[in-house]
Amino acid sequence: xxxxxxxxxxxxxxxxxxxxxDEDLKQLRDTLVLQVSKVRARGVIVDVTALDVIDSFxxxxxxxxxxxxxxxxAETVIVGIQPEVAFSMVKxxxxxxxxxxxxxxxxxxxxxxxxxxxxxxxxxHR
Amino acid sequence: xxxxxxxxxxxTQASSTVVEHVAQGQEGLMNGTQEVAAVTQAxxxxxxxxxxxxxxxxxxxxxxxxxEWARLITEAxxxxxxxxxxxxxxxxxxxxxxxxxxxxxxYEALQAYARNLSERIIPRGVExxxxxxxxxxxxxxxxxxxxxxxxxxxNKLNRILDAYEPAANRIAATVAxxxxxxxxxxxxxxxxxxxxxxxxxxxxxxRLLILxxxxxxxxxxxxxxxxxxxxxxxxxxxxxVVLDITGVPYIDSPVANHLVQTVEAARLxxxxxxxxxxxxxxxxxxxxxxxxxxxxxxxxxxxxxIEEAERLLGYKVVLMQEPALQST
Lengths: 126, 328
Prior knowledge:
The structure holds two protein chains of two kinds. Helix content of chain A is 50%, strand content 17%. Chain A is an alpha/beta fold. Chain A has a five-stranded mixed β-sheet, with helices on both faces. In chain A, helix 1 (22-38) runs parallel beside helix 2 (56-71). The longest helix of chain A has 21 residues, at 105-125. By secondary structure, chain B is an alpha/beta fold. Chain B has a five-stranded mixed β-sheet with strand order 1-2-3-4-5, sandwiched between helices. Chain B is elongated, with a radius of gyration of 36 Å. The interface between A and B is medium-sized, with 18 and 18 residues.
Protein backbone atom coordinates (compact mmCIF):
# COMPACT_ATOMS: atom_id res chain seq x y z
CA UNK A 1 0.00 0.00 0.00
CA UNK A 2 1.59 3.20 -1.19
CA UNK A 3 1.31 6.35 0.88
CA UNK A 4 0.03 9.35 -1.06
CA UNK A 5 2.19 12.47 -0.70
CA UNK A 6 0.51 15.82 -1.31
CA UNK A 7 2.16 19.17 -1.77
CA UNK A 8 0.49 21.99 0.14
CA UNK A 9 2.26 25.32 -0.19
CA UNK A 10 5.75 24.90 1.13
CA UNK A 11 4.90 21.64 2.87
CA UNK A 12 4.65 17.98 1.92
CA UNK A 13 1.88 15.99 3.57
CA UNK A 14 2.04 12.19 3.69
CA UNK A 15 -1.16 10.60 5.00
CA UNK A 16 -0.86 6.95 6.00
CA UNK A 17 -4.14 5.24 5.07
CA UNK A 18 -3.70 1.72 6.44
CA UNK A 19 -1.22 -0.55 8.18
CA UNK A 20 2.21 -0.48 6.52
CA UNK A 21 4.65 -3.29 5.88
CA ASP A 22 8.36 -2.72 6.45
CA GLU A 23 8.77 -2.38 2.66
CA ASP A 24 6.07 0.29 2.52
CA LEU A 25 7.80 2.19 5.31
CA LYS A 26 11.17 2.10 3.53
CA GLN A 27 9.55 3.30 0.35
CA LEU A 28 7.80 6.13 2.19
CA ARG A 29 11.14 7.16 3.71
CA ASP A 30 12.98 7.13 0.39
CA THR A 31 10.21 8.98 -1.46
CA LEU A 32 9.89 11.70 1.18
CA VAL A 33 13.62 12.29 1.44
CA LEU A 34 13.89 12.48 -2.33
CA GLN A 35 10.83 14.71 -2.82
CA VAL A 36 11.61 17.23 -0.11
CA SER A 37 14.44 18.80 -2.10
CA LYS A 38 12.81 18.29 -5.45
CA VAL A 39 9.85 20.51 -4.55
CA ARG A 40 11.92 22.76 -2.25
CA ALA A 41 9.61 21.97 0.69
CA ARG A 42 10.28 23.67 4.03
CA GLY A 43 8.37 21.12 6.07
CA VAL A 44 7.03 17.58 6.00
CA ILE A 45 4.00 16.25 7.85
CA VAL A 46 3.50 12.50 8.32
CA ASP A 47 -0.08 11.76 9.43
CA VAL A 48 -0.38 8.40 11.23
CA THR A 49 -3.96 8.80 12.53
CA ALA A 50 -5.00 5.59 10.79
CA LEU A 51 -2.35 3.44 12.47
CA ASP A 52 -3.46 1.20 15.37
CA VAL A 53 0.03 -0.13 15.94
CA ILE A 54 3.39 1.58 15.65
CA ASP A 55 6.17 -0.95 16.21
CA SER A 56 9.90 -0.49 16.71
CA PHE A 57 10.71 -0.63 13.00
CA UNK A 58 8.09 2.00 12.20
CA UNK A 59 9.35 4.20 15.02
CA UNK A 60 12.93 3.91 13.83
CA UNK A 61 11.95 4.63 10.24
CA UNK A 62 9.93 7.69 11.25
CA UNK A 63 12.85 8.95 13.29
CA UNK A 64 15.24 8.33 10.36
CA UNK A 65 12.91 10.25 8.07
CA UNK A 66 12.87 13.20 10.45
CA UNK A 67 16.65 13.24 10.84
CA UNK A 68 17.35 12.81 7.11
CA UNK A 69 14.90 15.56 6.20
CA UNK A 70 16.50 17.89 8.71
CA UNK A 71 19.86 17.19 7.06
CA UNK A 72 18.23 18.11 3.77
CA UNK A 73 17.17 21.46 5.23
CA ALA A 74 13.51 20.98 6.22
CA GLU A 75 11.43 20.22 9.34
CA THR A 76 9.36 17.08 9.96
CA VAL A 77 6.41 16.65 12.28
CA ILE A 78 4.56 13.40 13.02
CA VAL A 79 0.85 13.97 13.67
CA GLY A 80 -2.16 11.98 14.81
CA ILE A 81 -0.63 9.34 17.08
CA GLN A 82 -3.56 7.77 18.97
CA PRO A 83 -3.50 7.91 22.79
CA GLU A 84 -3.41 4.11 23.19
CA VAL A 85 -0.72 3.81 20.54
CA ALA A 86 1.32 6.53 22.24
CA PHE A 87 1.24 4.78 25.57
CA SER A 88 2.11 1.36 24.21
CA MET A 89 5.00 2.91 22.26
CA VAL A 90 6.35 4.49 25.43
CA LYS A 91 5.97 1.17 27.26
CA UNK A 92 8.23 -0.40 24.66
CA UNK A 93 10.71 2.44 25.04
CA UNK A 94 9.89 3.94 21.64
CA UNK A 95 9.74 7.65 22.37
CA UNK A 96 10.63 9.20 18.98
CA UNK A 97 13.33 11.27 20.61
CA UNK A 98 14.24 14.49 18.85
CA UNK A 99 11.23 14.27 16.55
CA UNK A 100 8.45 16.85 16.67
CA UNK A 101 4.93 15.46 17.23
CA UNK A 102 1.54 17.16 17.09
CA UNK A 103 -2.03 16.24 17.88
CA UNK A 104 -3.36 16.36 14.32
CA UNK A 105 -2.80 17.80 10.85
CA UNK A 106 -4.00 21.27 11.86
CA UNK A 107 -1.63 21.39 14.80
CA UNK A 108 1.19 20.09 12.64
CA UNK A 109 0.67 22.86 10.09
CA UNK A 110 0.57 25.45 12.90
CA UNK A 111 3.82 24.03 14.26
CA UNK A 112 5.58 24.26 10.89
CA UNK A 113 4.28 27.82 10.39
CA UNK A 114 5.69 28.83 13.77
CA UNK A 115 9.02 27.21 12.90
CA UNK A 116 9.17 29.01 9.56
CA UNK A 117 8.38 32.34 11.22
CA UNK A 118 11.06 31.86 13.83
CA UNK A 119 13.48 30.96 11.08
CA UNK A 120 12.66 34.15 9.18
CA UNK A 121 13.06 36.25 12.31
CA UNK A 122 16.49 34.79 12.90
CA UNK A 123 17.42 35.61 9.32
CA UNK A 124 16.04 39.16 9.58
CA HIS A 125 18.02 39.62 12.74
CA ARG A 126 21.22 38.79 10.92
CA UNK B 1 20.45 -67.64 69.42
CA UNK B 2 18.36 -68.12 72.48
CA UNK B 3 17.12 -64.58 72.47
CA UNK B 4 16.00 -64.95 68.87
CA UNK B 5 13.82 -67.89 69.74
CA UNK B 6 12.31 -66.01 72.59
CA UNK B 7 11.60 -63.08 70.29
CA UNK B 8 9.82 -65.26 67.77
CA UNK B 9 7.83 -66.79 70.52
CA UNK B 10 6.85 -63.38 71.81
CA UNK B 11 5.81 -62.25 68.40
CA THR B 12 3.60 -65.25 67.84
CA GLN B 13 1.92 -64.69 71.11
CA ALA B 14 1.46 -61.04 70.48
CA SER B 15 -0.04 -61.50 67.04
CA SER B 16 -2.47 -64.12 68.25
CA THR B 17 -3.59 -61.77 70.98
CA VAL B 18 -4.15 -59.05 68.44
CA VAL B 19 -6.30 -61.33 66.31
CA GLU B 20 -8.41 -62.22 69.30
CA HIS B 21 -8.81 -58.59 70.11
CA VAL B 22 -9.91 -57.81 66.62
CA ALA B 23 -12.49 -60.58 66.77
CA GLN B 24 -13.78 -59.27 70.04
CA GLY B 25 -13.65 -55.73 68.81
CA GLN B 26 -15.85 -56.55 65.83
CA GLU B 27 -18.48 -57.99 68.05
CA GLY B 28 -18.15 -55.03 70.36
CA LEU B 29 -18.40 -52.66 67.45
CA MET B 30 -21.87 -53.89 66.57
CA ASN B 31 -23.05 -53.33 70.11
CA GLY B 32 -21.04 -50.13 70.34
CA THR B 33 -22.71 -48.46 67.36
CA GLN B 34 -26.10 -48.92 68.88
CA GLU B 35 -24.84 -47.77 72.24
CA VAL B 36 -23.25 -44.63 70.79
CA ALA B 37 -26.40 -43.82 68.88
CA ALA B 38 -28.46 -44.19 72.01
CA VAL B 39 -26.07 -42.06 74.01
CA THR B 40 -26.00 -39.34 71.32
CA GLN B 41 -29.75 -39.36 71.21
CA ALA B 42 -29.93 -39.01 74.94
CA UNK B 43 -27.32 -36.26 74.93
CA UNK B 44 -29.16 -34.37 72.22
CA UNK B 45 -32.34 -34.59 74.20
CA UNK B 46 -30.66 -33.47 77.35
CA UNK B 47 -28.83 -30.67 75.52
CA UNK B 48 -32.17 -29.58 74.15
CA UNK B 49 -33.86 -29.74 77.46
CA UNK B 50 -30.95 -28.00 79.14
CA UNK B 51 -31.03 -25.23 76.55
CA UNK B 52 -34.75 -24.91 77.17
CA UNK B 53 -34.10 -24.66 80.86
CA UNK B 54 -31.38 -22.15 80.18
CA UNK B 55 -33.60 -20.04 77.98
CA UNK B 56 -36.37 -20.11 80.54
CA UNK B 57 -33.89 -18.97 83.14
CA UNK B 58 -32.63 -16.15 80.95
CA UNK B 59 -36.18 -15.03 80.12
CA UNK B 60 -37.03 -15.03 83.78
CA UNK B 61 -34.01 -12.94 84.72
CA UNK B 62 -34.26 -10.71 81.66
CA UNK B 63 -34.75 -7.34 83.33
CA UNK B 64 -32.05 -7.85 85.90
CA UNK B 65 -29.41 -9.32 83.57
CA UNK B 66 -30.03 -6.72 80.92
CA UNK B 67 -29.50 -3.96 83.42
CA GLU B 68 -26.36 -5.63 84.73
CA TRP B 69 -25.05 -5.90 81.20
CA ALA B 70 -25.76 -2.28 80.33
CA ARG B 71 -24.03 -1.23 83.54
CA LEU B 72 -20.93 -3.28 82.65
CA ILE B 73 -20.83 -1.78 79.16
CA THR B 74 -20.85 1.73 80.60
CA GLU B 75 -18.29 0.77 83.21
CA ALA B 76 -15.94 -0.69 80.62
CA UNK B 77 -16.27 2.58 78.66
CA UNK B 78 -17.48 0.75 75.57
CA UNK B 79 -19.84 2.34 73.04
CA UNK B 80 -18.88 5.82 74.21
CA UNK B 81 -20.35 7.22 71.00
CA UNK B 82 -23.85 6.29 72.20
CA UNK B 83 -26.01 7.65 75.02
CA UNK B 84 -27.00 5.57 78.02
CA UNK B 85 -30.59 5.24 76.79
CA UNK B 86 -29.42 4.08 73.36
CA UNK B 87 -27.11 1.53 74.91
CA UNK B 88 -29.97 0.24 77.02
CA UNK B 89 -32.32 0.01 74.05
CA UNK B 90 -29.73 -1.80 71.93
CA UNK B 91 -28.83 -4.03 74.87
CA UNK B 92 -32.46 -5.07 75.16
CA UNK B 93 -32.79 -6.07 71.53
CA UNK B 94 -29.38 -7.77 71.47
CA UNK B 95 -30.37 -9.67 74.59
CA UNK B 96 -33.66 -10.85 73.09
CA UNK B 97 -32.01 -11.86 69.85
CA UNK B 98 -29.33 -13.63 71.81
CA UNK B 99 -31.82 -15.66 73.82
CA UNK B 100 -33.77 -16.44 70.69
CA UNK B 101 -30.67 -17.73 68.95
CA UNK B 102 -29.96 -19.91 72.00
CA UNK B 103 -33.49 -21.23 71.92
CA UNK B 104 -33.89 -21.97 68.22
CA UNK B 105 -30.27 -22.86 67.48
CA UNK B 106 -30.52 -20.90 64.21
CA TYR B 107 -28.36 -17.89 63.66
CA GLU B 108 -29.87 -16.31 60.53
CA ALA B 109 -32.09 -13.91 62.46
CA LEU B 110 -29.19 -12.95 64.70
CA GLN B 111 -26.93 -12.51 61.69
CA ALA B 112 -29.45 -10.19 60.02
CA TYR B 113 -29.84 -8.29 63.25
CA ALA B 114 -26.05 -7.98 63.65
CA ARG B 115 -25.76 -6.63 60.11
CA ASN B 116 -28.56 -4.17 60.72
CA LEU B 117 -27.03 -3.08 64.01
CA SER B 118 -23.61 -2.62 62.36
CA GLU B 119 -25.16 -0.51 59.63
CA ARG B 120 -26.59 1.80 62.27
CA ILE B 121 -23.60 2.04 64.58
CA ILE B 122 -20.64 2.07 62.18
CA PRO B 123 -21.36 5.62 60.95
CA ARG B 124 -21.30 6.69 64.61
CA GLY B 125 -17.72 5.55 64.99
CA VAL B 126 -18.21 2.32 66.91
CA GLU B 127 -15.07 0.20 66.71
CA UNK B 128 -14.67 -3.55 66.22
CA UNK B 129 -13.21 -4.09 69.69
CA UNK B 130 -16.27 -2.44 71.24
CA UNK B 131 -18.72 -4.72 69.49
CA UNK B 132 -16.68 -7.81 70.33
CA UNK B 133 -16.31 -6.47 73.87
CA UNK B 134 -20.03 -6.05 74.53
CA UNK B 135 -20.92 -9.46 73.14
CA UNK B 136 -18.27 -11.09 75.31
CA UNK B 137 -19.55 -9.08 78.29
CA UNK B 138 -23.04 -10.43 77.71
CA UNK B 139 -21.64 -13.94 77.54
CA UNK B 140 -19.90 -13.38 80.87
CA UNK B 141 -22.96 -11.82 82.51
CA UNK B 142 -25.11 -14.76 81.51
CA UNK B 143 -22.48 -17.27 82.63
CA UNK B 144 -22.24 -15.53 86.00
CA UNK B 145 -25.98 -15.71 86.47
CA UNK B 146 -25.82 -19.43 85.68
CA UNK B 147 -23.12 -19.83 88.34
CA UNK B 148 -25.25 -17.97 90.82
CA UNK B 149 -28.32 -20.08 90.12
CA UNK B 150 -26.76 -23.52 89.99
CA UNK B 151 -23.77 -23.17 92.34
CA UNK B 152 -25.29 -25.71 94.73
CA UNK B 153 -25.47 -28.48 92.14
CA UNK B 154 -22.04 -28.61 90.57
CA ASN B 155 -22.89 -31.41 88.12
CA LYS B 156 -25.94 -29.65 86.85
CA LEU B 157 -23.99 -26.44 86.45
CA ASN B 158 -21.45 -28.31 84.38
CA ARG B 159 -24.10 -29.80 82.12
CA ILE B 160 -25.82 -26.46 81.68
CA LEU B 161 -22.49 -24.85 80.79
CA ASP B 162 -21.84 -27.68 78.30
CA ALA B 163 -24.97 -26.64 76.50
CA TYR B 164 -24.45 -22.91 76.96
CA GLU B 165 -20.79 -22.38 76.03
CA PRO B 166 -20.71 -23.62 72.40
CA ALA B 167 -23.90 -21.73 71.61
CA ALA B 168 -22.67 -18.57 73.30
CA ASN B 169 -19.32 -18.69 71.54
CA ARG B 170 -20.97 -19.21 68.22
CA ILE B 171 -23.25 -16.24 68.84
CA ALA B 172 -20.26 -14.06 69.74
CA ALA B 173 -18.47 -15.13 66.58
CA THR B 174 -21.59 -14.50 64.47
CA VAL B 175 -22.03 -10.96 65.75
CA ALA B 176 -18.33 -10.11 65.42
CA UNK B 177 -18.08 -11.51 61.90
CA UNK B 178 -21.28 -9.72 60.90
CA UNK B 179 -19.87 -6.45 62.14
CA UNK B 180 -16.52 -6.89 60.38
CA UNK B 181 -18.21 -7.91 57.12
CA UNK B 182 -20.40 -4.83 57.22
CA UNK B 183 -17.33 -2.68 57.83
CA UNK B 184 -15.52 -4.25 54.90
CA UNK B 185 -18.53 -3.72 52.66
CA UNK B 186 -18.58 -0.03 53.58
CA UNK B 187 -14.84 0.27 52.94
CA UNK B 188 -15.22 -1.35 49.52
CA UNK B 189 -18.02 1.03 48.63
CA UNK B 190 -15.99 4.01 49.70
CA UNK B 191 -12.97 2.85 47.70
CA UNK B 192 -15.19 2.58 44.66
CA UNK B 193 -16.51 6.09 45.22
CA UNK B 194 -13.02 7.51 45.69
CA UNK B 195 -11.83 5.81 42.52
CA UNK B 196 -14.65 7.37 40.53
CA UNK B 197 -13.83 10.83 41.83
CA UNK B 198 -10.10 10.39 41.65
CA UNK B 199 -8.99 11.86 38.33
CA UNK B 200 -10.78 15.00 37.20
CA UNK B 201 -9.55 16.64 34.00
CA UNK B 202 -10.25 20.36 34.06
CA UNK B 203 -9.79 22.91 31.32
CA UNK B 204 -8.68 26.29 32.72
CA UNK B 205 -7.90 28.02 29.44
CA UNK B 206 -8.10 27.25 25.78
CA ARG B 207 -5.64 24.35 25.26
CA LEU B 208 -4.64 24.19 28.93
CA LEU B 209 -5.74 21.32 31.17
CA ILE B 210 -5.22 20.72 34.87
CA LEU B 211 -5.21 17.30 36.51
CA UNK B 212 -5.13 17.64 40.29
CA UNK B 213 -4.28 14.29 41.87
CA UNK B 214 -5.00 13.70 45.54
CA UNK B 215 -4.14 10.60 47.51
CA UNK B 216 -1.99 7.56 46.97
CA UNK B 217 -1.59 6.39 43.37
CA UNK B 218 -1.79 2.61 43.09
CA UNK B 219 -1.09 0.83 39.78
CA UNK B 220 -4.75 0.71 38.85
CA UNK B 221 -5.22 4.40 39.52
CA UNK B 222 -2.04 5.15 37.57
CA UNK B 223 -3.50 3.36 34.55
CA UNK B 224 -6.72 5.30 34.88
CA UNK B 225 -4.75 8.53 35.21
CA UNK B 226 -2.85 7.88 31.98
CA UNK B 227 -6.02 7.04 30.12
CA UNK B 228 -7.81 10.18 31.35
CA UNK B 229 -4.86 12.42 30.61
CA UNK B 230 -4.24 11.17 27.06
CA UNK B 231 -7.93 11.13 26.24
CA UNK B 232 -8.30 14.61 27.75
CA UNK B 233 -5.51 15.93 25.52
CA UNK B 234 -7.29 14.59 22.47
CA UNK B 235 -10.82 15.73 23.27
CA UNK B 236 -9.82 19.18 24.52
CA UNK B 237 -7.06 19.62 21.91
CA UNK B 238 -4.74 20.56 24.75
CA UNK B 239 -1.20 21.81 24.18
CA UNK B 240 -0.19 21.96 27.82
CA VAL B 241 -1.28 19.84 30.78
CA VAL B 242 -0.47 20.73 34.37
CA LEU B 243 -0.35 17.56 36.46
CA ASP B 244 -0.54 18.65 40.08
CA ILE B 245 0.55 15.99 42.56
CA THR B 246 0.70 18.18 45.68
CA GLY B 247 -1.84 15.85 47.27
CA VAL B 248 0.20 12.71 46.64
CA PRO B 249 2.38 11.85 49.63
CA TYR B 250 4.64 9.29 47.94
CA ILE B 251 4.80 6.95 44.96
CA ASP B 252 6.65 3.68 44.43
CA SER B 253 9.04 3.17 41.53
CA PRO B 254 6.65 1.30 39.19
CA VAL B 255 4.16 4.15 39.53
CA ALA B 256 6.96 6.72 39.10
CA ASN B 257 7.98 4.96 35.89
CA HIS B 258 4.39 4.95 34.77
CA LEU B 259 4.21 8.70 35.39
CA VAL B 260 7.33 9.35 33.31
CA GLN B 261 5.93 7.19 30.52
CA THR B 262 2.66 9.12 30.63
CA VAL B 263 4.58 12.37 30.22
CA GLU B 264 6.40 10.94 27.20
CA ALA B 265 3.20 9.58 25.68
CA ALA B 266 1.62 13.02 26.04
CA ARG B 267 4.54 14.47 24.09
CA LEU B 268 3.82 12.02 21.28
CA UNK B 269 0.35 13.57 21.13
CA UNK B 270 1.98 16.96 20.78
CA UNK B 271 1.29 18.15 24.31
CA UNK B 272 3.64 19.29 27.06
CA UNK B 273 3.09 18.02 30.60
CA UNK B 274 4.17 20.19 33.50
CA UNK B 275 4.33 18.30 36.79
CA UNK B 276 3.87 20.45 39.88
CA UNK B 277 4.00 19.98 43.61
CA UNK B 278 6.48 17.13 43.88
CA UNK B 279 7.08 16.19 47.49
CA UNK B 280 10.66 15.54 48.61
CA UNK B 281 9.86 11.81 48.81
CA UNK B 282 8.58 11.72 45.23
CA UNK B 283 11.59 13.72 44.03
CA UNK B 284 13.79 11.13 45.72
CA UNK B 285 11.91 8.27 44.03
CA UNK B 286 12.19 9.91 40.62
CA UNK B 287 15.92 10.47 41.07
CA UNK B 288 16.33 6.85 42.22
CA UNK B 289 14.69 5.48 39.08
CA UNK B 290 17.01 7.72 37.05
CA UNK B 291 14.49 10.07 35.47
CA UNK B 292 15.65 12.05 32.43
CA UNK B 293 15.15 15.65 33.50
CA UNK B 294 15.20 16.76 29.86
CA UNK B 295 11.90 14.95 29.39
CA UNK B 296 10.25 15.95 32.64
CA UNK B 297 9.06 19.53 33.00
CA UNK B 298 8.57 20.26 36.68
CA UNK B 299 7.60 23.41 38.58
CA UNK B 300 7.40 23.88 42.35
CA UNK B 301 3.73 24.60 42.90
CA UNK B 302 0.45 24.70 41.00
CA UNK B 303 0.53 28.49 40.58
CA UNK B 304 4.00 28.35 39.08
CA UNK B 305 2.86 25.51 36.84
CA ILE B 306 -0.09 27.48 35.50
CA GLU B 307 2.10 30.54 34.94
CA GLU B 308 4.65 28.45 33.06
CA ALA B 309 1.84 26.88 30.99
CA GLU B 310 0.46 30.32 30.12
CA ARG B 311 3.92 31.42 29.06
CA LEU B 312 4.23 28.36 26.80
CA LEU B 313 0.83 29.11 25.28
CA GLY B 314 1.71 32.77 24.78
CA TYR B 315 -0.73 34.17 27.33
CA LYS B 316 0.13 37.23 29.32
CA VAL B 317 -1.96 37.91 32.39
CA VAL B 318 -2.20 41.63 33.18
CA LEU B 319 -3.71 43.26 36.23
CA MET B 320 -6.27 45.73 34.84
CA GLN B 321 -6.90 47.67 38.05
CA GLU B 322 -6.71 47.33 41.81
CA PRO B 323 -8.74 44.30 42.92
CA ALA B 324 -12.31 45.43 43.71
CA LEU B 325 -12.83 43.16 46.66
CA GLN B 326 -15.56 43.91 49.15
CA SER B 327 -14.24 45.21 52.43
CA THR B 328 -16.27 44.79 55.56
